[in-house]
């Protein structure tokens, strides 16, 4: 095993430890923010090469099940923007915002933006634990391989809006939370109508924000 393999293995382990810790106790995020950001800043230039073409199959399966096309979409932990572009292509009327903690990921996402999507897709650097959006700003919030911050997910998803949490390699994904755990937390945060999806080794959970909480 060479140094690159070792670093990748350590990075995957760190991502899982961070996810477990923060889902159990969101207040611990402040101790992990710096290392998470540094890790993904370093990965940004090579991120697209690491992605399998079918990495978002489960996310897409969940998006297929949405009852209506959303007009305001948030892709949290957008990385290089791949899932944001999927949403923008699928929902041609939608404005899509991709948010990432790592500045280098945001820069890469902006660089990757196809000209035909540039008017409707924008990227900004922000922390999903403290988002710069008002309550109920989005009809669809989607996460691909990203740590869920439940308070903020509940705050920025519009009443009756939808949330999709997807994991490209199911339980093998470094950032992964079991569906039962997600359902429990989301249920306590005003989400309902859960549905699970599996495709190409990935998993996704779709949920609807109650119109009254
Ligand atoms: C595993 S990558 C997934 C990237 C992309 N969604 C994909 O599947 O290709 C996780 C991304 O979430 C970002 N991230 C982690 N914690 C975050 C936070 N609190 N706020 C915003 N982005 C975060 C990381 O910088 C990284 O780009």
Q: Helix and strand layout, with pairings?
A:
Blueprint: H1 3-24, H2 29-43, H3 47-50, H4 57-64, E1 72-76, H5 82-90, E2 95-100, H6 103-112, E3 121-125, E4 138-144, H7 150-156, E5 157-167, H8 179-188, E6 191-199, E7 202-209
Parallel strand pairs: 1-2, 1-4, 2-3, 4-5
Antiparallel strand pairs: 5-7, 6-7
The structure holds S-adenosylmethionine.
S-adenosylmethionine is lined by residues 36, 40, 51, 77-79, 82-83, 99-102, 105, 127-129, 144-147, 175.
Query: What is the CA-based Rg, rounded?
Result: 16 Å
Query: What composes the largest sheet?
Result: 7 strands, mixed
pLDDT < 50 stretches: none
Strand order of the largest sheet: 3-2-1-4-5-7-6
Q: Span between N and C termini? A: 52 Å
Arithmetic mean pLDDT = 96
Specify the structural class.
Answer: alpha/beta
**Percentage of β-strand residues:** 15-25%
Number of strands: 7
Sum up the overall morphology in one term: globular
Number of helices: 8
Helix amount: 25-40%
Please provide the ordered H/E string of secondary-structure elements: HHHHEHEHEEHEHEE
Bound molecules: S-adenosylmethionine
